[in-house]
Amino acid sequence: MTHRQGHRVAVVALLVVVLPASACVTYPRDWDRKEQGSDPYEDSNRAVFGFNEGMDEYLLEPLSEGWEFVTWQGLRRSVDKFFINLGFPRRFLTNLGQGQIGNVGSELGRFVLNTTVGLVGFFDPATHIGMELYDEDFGQMFGRWGVSPGPYWVLPVLGPSNPRDTTGLVFDLLVDPRTLASLTPVFTLAWTSVVQNVNRRALLDQDLESARESALDFYIFMRDAYTQRRQALINNEVVGGEFASPGSVPADLYDVDFDDEPDPKD
Amino acid sequence: MLSLLFSGLRSSCASSRLLVPVLLLAFAPQASAAPASEADQAAARRAVDGTVEDVLSVLRNGDLVLAQKRDRIENIAYERFDFEVISKLVLARNWRRMSVQQRADFETEFKRHLSVTYGDSLDRYSDEEVAVTDTRPENNGDVTVRSRILGRGDPIAVDYRLRGRKGRWYVIDVIIEGVSLLSNFRSQTQEVIRAEGPDGLIQMLREKNDARSGSADEAAQAAGS
């Protein structure tokens, strides 16, 4: 996943509020005993999700259409690469924190090469010579360390997350060059994230559209995909040599003999 | 919510991901047993190989208009996916609570749903290559076949899970970058059944399919004329 920092949209101030809250949050008693994908905050999550969808419709989508009009595909890809390159300190530290020393070296090489030959990251010569991107973040690192995600929740503007990943996100932002190098980190992160996400939105417009159109319940679609995807990334099953196996699916997913199971309660 | 699409799917190249849905549509044949043997794995792999070839040759055929491509790929999919098993796995425990008629209706609409959804993205295909790379036996006799879609952006990992039935291998799940579509569909249908009941689910699928296949046909006609 190259785009972890994709959802570091503007509202850093929000995180200042969210982080302390996530540290002392009380989970509903049975959240961990429920099936995968259980969602104790579903009602408020759906409300926030609706808000985010509205933001996309009335703000992000129009902006990205305008951006698409004044740019071309190659430029948009380059802008995306530029922001990916900025994620270097995060990837460096979190690969290190998971003991993936080979990846750490590769990341270091990538950063040097792409920042210089690749013109501050707008081009990606490193990939062409076989230095792969190992996109890790603090949420994944915590997961690798055995920290459980906690209940699924949807953050305003930032989208699907959980206490573990939200905490990770704060660390991600703290080591972001934009935070480190700017005198006004909140402001800098805010406006650059808008550019980053408008650009990404333009690249993914059709995918998003078709996902929305096909989903029976887009909220559930996103919740399930997010949960599975994060777990697969933590297992490192996606990048590298492993199978892209589902990270977290019901134990009986492939079992057609559900006749001996008790009736669902509802 | 955008963040999943931003962060969740790995490719920075949107177009190369478009092939995923297209390839989601197809697969086939040979032996079957309890724990998958080497021969089973080879057979499952051949099924995936053959299907990928068939799909790509349809996509690359410049003589076909969009609607024809969609039809052909749909046919490949119907042959290579075990929709009966897929429907049952998607519905899981709800399956038992549904009548024979409801089950059949669901299967019909679900097939249409998949075909409409993935037919949509056909015209976005742009010369991606597919590499079938590896196989893995599963505990219950299934075989997972691993592939990668290579386009202009990052490669995309796509796994196909196949199950043998009557000497042939059929796809029962597609796992894209770690996300099982079967599991995703199950989550969604469970939610809809909880809220609307089985008939509500079937109705919802039918309405969606009617609306979308209508617009797809118009688009195809416009493109074809």
Task: Describe, in plain words, how this protein is organized in 3D.
The complex is a heterodimer of chains A (266) and B (225). By secondary structure, chain A is an all-alpha fold. Helix content of chain A is 58%, strand content 2%. Chain A has 12 helices and 2 strands, in the order αααααααββααααα. In chain A, strands 1-2 form a two-stranded antiparallel sheet. In chain A, a hairpin with a 3-residue loop joins β1 (153-155) and β2. The longest helix of chain A has 29 residues, at 42-70. Chain B is α+β, with helices and mostly antiparallel strands and 225 residues long. Helix content of chain B is 58%, strand content 17%. Chain B contains 9 helices and 5 strands. Chain B has helices spanning 2-8, 14-17, 19-23, 38-60, 66-80, 83-91, 94-97, 100-119, 181-224; strands at residues 129-137, 143-150, 156-165, 168-176, 179-180. In chain B, strands 1-2-3-4-5 form a 5-stranded antiparallel beta sheet. In chain B, α4 packs antiparallel against α5 and α8 crosses α9 (181-224). The termini of chain B are far apart. The model of chain B is unreliable at 1-33 (pLDDT under 50). Classes of the chains: A mainly alpha (266), B alpha+beta (225). At the A-B interface, α2, α3, β2, α10 and α11 of A face α1, α6, α7, α8 and β3 of B.
